[in-house]
């Protein structure tokens, strides 16, 4: 939820999109249910994620000399 809040604060989602996404996630019973989000909402999240470069953060290797345990803690 923190990420979609940040997307809203950066004006990458409208208040309505944010509320709809938040409601969808709140009522989803599993990750698979979240993946069934209506296409317009997914497109909004994808567009905001691209602008925020979220995928870059998730796929960036840790700095040299840092273990995954160091990254988590």
Describe this protein's structure.
- With 73 residues, the protein is mainly α.
- It has one domain (2-59).
- It is 68% helix and 0% strand.
- It contains six helices and no strands.
- The protein is globular.
- The model has no long low-confidence stretch (mean pLDDT 86).
Number of domains: 1
> Span between N and C termini?
21 Å
Instruction: Please trace the helix and strand order, writing H or E for each element.
Output: HHHHHH
Low-confidence stretches: none
Radius of gyration, Cα only, in angstroms?
Answer: 15 Å
Bulk shape: globular
Average pLDDT, rounded to a whole number, is: 86
- The tally of beta strands, per DSSP, is 0
- Strand-residue proportion: under 5%
Indicate the structural class: mainly alpha
What is the helical fraction, as a range of percent? Answer: 55-70%
Major pleated sheet: none
Q: Helix count, per DSSP? A: 6
List keywords for this structure.
mainly alpha, 73 residues
Give the helices and strands, then pairings.
Layout (H helix, E strand, L loop, with lengths): L1 H8 L5 H13 L3 H4 L4 H14 L1 H6 L8 H5 L1
Helix pairs in contact: 1-2
Summed up:
Helix content is 68%, strand content 0%. The protein is an all-alpha fold and 73 residues long.
